[in-house]
Amino acid sequence: MAASVLLADAALAARQAGADLTGALTGGRFALQALRRPAWALGAALSCVRALTSPAGLGFAPNGGVIGELARAAGNVTRRRPAAVAMAVDAFALRIEAATVTHPNLDTAHARRLTGAVVAGDRLEAARALHALVERLGVTRALTTVSPVIMELLALTGLLDENPVNDGFSWVTLAGGVPTTDPFLGLPSSLLKFLNPGPGRAERADPDPILAKVLGTSRNDIVSYVNDIGALGNHGLVLLRRVACTDGSERHVLLLPGTSFALLSNSTPQDLVGAFDGCLRTDTTYTRAAKKLLRRAGVPAGSELMLVGHSLGGLTAMNLAADVDVASEYRVSHVITLGSPIDAKRPADHTTRVISLVNKHDVIPMLDGRGPAAPHDIPDHWVELAWLDESYDYPLSHAPQAYSDSLRGDLAHYREQVNALIRCYDGEITGNQPYTLRDR
Fold first, then answer.
1. Strand 383-387 to 353-359 pairing
2. Whole-model pTM?
3. Residue 73 CA: distances (Å) to CA of 24, 56, 63, 80, 162
4. CATH numeric code, 194-438
């Protein structure tokens, strides 16, 4: 893993060197100097061109600016690769190899055939290998098998194809950031705000008999919270809880379920468009609706608030904690997420305790670019509890029930650890009010 970090740094430095040389060669200052000293300019230009195109130097490395990007696009189409790409490919390959140590499913012949073909840039062989893997294991088991390195595989695919527009995804993934473009077409995330423009709306709702029965047994326990979220479903319901705590304070808990995968977009913020939007932005329809819920419910200013969310709900919890208006209105004491890609997000209040629960057999938490194969880490004061539970394949490994089962079973010590961190919310539940959130 240390070698992959060094290679990634070298690749990013080489790419930046190419951009700097391209900018110097095509900039206005160089043109002015060329008018004054044409002989010097010719020699300097030839040196820059050699450095930018020599296989012994940066490879074919022009990038940045109009001219640089046109040259880079031409290089992509003709498959002339810069040295930075070669180093990036090696860095991703080392990440995949490192992940194989802790994820033995990646060490099987079929999985290695797929990862090897992707690293080699052989798309036809990669397609054949993927087909063979799916044929042998089925779709869900195949997806679960490659999930620890899914971001690396997508980044390699974008980096080694002829499309120059989608390379940004790969470079951001290499640097440990959250990609703001898709890996196939390179479409920017800014398009999502046009697909998810709703102002958000929150209306009180009555619990159905099943939800009412589950809420009747609720308590300040992480497994209980997960079960409550599972009972809320993912069709727009959230829950605001009021607790008369044992220390005499009144605190509130907001439970936020995750995504409905039935449709790309529906009338609630809990759709696929909202999931992508929540991963890439903080001001989303889900957060706007949740803020209106807190105001409509009359949660007093300065109240302590714990946000618990699964999947998109966890993203929304972090987005709310990152919202300066929310952080200044309420005291967001805890954010607990389950199966959420939150690692690139930060709460506005540095005292907010962030607790992230991650099943490494779950694909979704890796969509922030920090999967098991990534060398980048989270802040020291965060609590991340991660485990590898192969009881369920994806998508069942992502379900709230899978997390609940793990925390009730072999991971009971994680349950106790989380419960100890939220002990201040022990007390009598004096209010359980479901709300329906809508886009408009």
1. parallel
2. 0.81
3. 19, 21, 9, 10, 8
4. 3.40.50
Orientation of helix 412-421 relative to helix 400-408, angle to 10°: 100
Alpha-helix runs per DSSP H in 269-341 = 272-280, 285-296, 312-322, 324-329
Per-residue pLDDT reduced to its tens digit, 142-195: 888 888 888 899 999 999 998 888 899 899 989 887 777 878 888 787 776 677
**Does residue 197 carry a pLDDT above 80?**
no
SS3 121: coil
**Other Cβ atoms closer than 10 A to 210:** 10
Cβ atoms within 10 Å, residue 415: 20
Contacts of 127 (CB under 8 A, 6+ apart): none
Residue located via tokens 């060329």: 34
Task: Identify whether the C-beta of residue 221 lies closer than 8 Å to the C-beta of residue 418.
Answer: no
Contact 289, 438 (CB under 8 A): yes
8 A C-beta contact, residue 288 and residue 200: yes
Residues forming a β-bridge with 304? 251, 331
Domain boundary assignment for the chain: 1-175, 194-438
**What does the CA dihedral 245, 247, 252, 255 come to, rounded to 10 degrees?**
-60
Supply 402's token pair.
Answer: 């899978």
- Condensed to tens digits (0 to 9), the pLDDT of residues 337-358 reads 999 999 889 999 999 999 999 9
